[in-house]
């Protein structure tokens, strides 16, 4: 499935084997919510769809944010274990998978993509899906909350090969810089440095609590088997090795 037309026309189905990480994760969450109802648990679920484009955070569900009329800024640090708050962003309350799928369709249409020599539909931004879950037990009065972040990182780009110029070149520089900063944060975490440079990019600042807080973090690295992409494949695997060597500790269950 490629290109904006197929994105618009694509119909999500829970049984479709082509479903990606976001639909599958959402399915699992709502299945768990349903299974916990007999134990007295009730949940409120909120969803956000953001992109980080040229070091600017944009709400993919808000036209004012997309056209630059409204700035979205990180207004609360995650350094002490609290999730970041983002100004001028309103989460959507969702109660089922179908409601998330509808938001996903809208968000994918608005995401920044453009053609380069390497990719006809190249992502020009990092794509962030965030789901906040608030639970309360009517029997025990326990409360809990958690955040799921699923990130589709734009790929690093060799400008000479992609032929990027003008606006595409500006985008490529921003993508490469933020990915480099992500690597620096991961290396600092693996060395257990006293200072972790989360604030060097919007991406790492936004994900500080996921990278170094009370969390579980997974990274999937996609590589191309073609011999002409050997250098990119090697660089991707080297980056994956660095990530694999990073230990951020053990996540703790937080129930009030």
From TrEMBL:
An example molecular function term from Gene Ontology annotations: microtubule motor activity
Transmembrane segments: none
Main localization category: cytoplasm
Pfam families (alphabetical): Kinesin
Nucleotide-binding in keyword set: yes
Protein's GO biological process: microtubule-based movement
One GO CC annotation: microtubule
Subcellular location(s) per record: Cytoplasm, Cytoskeleton
Domain Kinesin motor: 1-246
Keyword Transit peptide carried by entry: no
Keywords associated with the record: ATP-binding, Cytoplasm, Cytoskeleton, Microtubule, Motor protein, Nucleotide-binding
Superkingdom assignment: Eukaryota
Family as reported in the entry's similarity comment: Belongs to the TRAFAC class myosin-kinesin ATPase superfamily. Kinesin family. KIN-14 subfamily.
Name the UniProt record assigns to this protein: Kinesin-like protein
